[in-house]
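Posting this for the archive.
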Amino acid sequence: MVDFAYIERVLPLYERAAVLTVQLGIEGILLSIVIGLVCALILYEKIPVLRRFVMIYIEVSRNTPLLVQLFFMYYGLPKIGIVLTSEVCGVAGLAFLGGSYMAEAFRSGLDSVENIQRESAYSLGMNRMQAMRYIILPQAVSTSIPAFLANIIFLLKETSVFSAISLMDLMFTAKDLIGLYYKTTESLALLVVFYLMILLPVSIVGAVVERRVRYAGFGA
């Protein structure tokens, strides 16, 4: 039988954990967007030395779990004198992982823009920077919307591993309460509900935006 009194008692704990989860998730996602865009532009422009570093970063980031990356930052870096708080590690880890996925999303969008678009911009008197800002990048971002939104949802779900570095997120709160009160069903049910409250609006808004934007803004 469901213990509603227990649910009412622990609800404020889940609310605080959800706020922390969303806050760290947003910060990490915003940083990952910046990292991804910069990396995609470096790859698109084929900048010699930086291009190699970006390719190495993408391979390392995408082929190692977020949990391993968090352990390295939280437990490994202090061995060489670099001490980071769990919040900083969480945001940095999410940005490090998400940046590589965002880079691939943006790069696929940039590659989808025909070369004639750049040539047309140059023929109109635009320089390289103006062509990128006003012609190429808007179309690339529009094309990248589906992958971009999928990455956002993926990164928000990845926040569930933050509990491994002692962050009082939703997963940590649920596990802590289960250990204290042995109310497994109620604790896990609240965990599912709060994750749905975070992720469903993002998914719905993403679907609406995707329909509006379509591919490069040329759809119906």
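Helices lie at 4-45, 48-62, 66-76, 86-112, 115-123, 128-158, 170-181, 184-213. The chain has one domain: 4-213.
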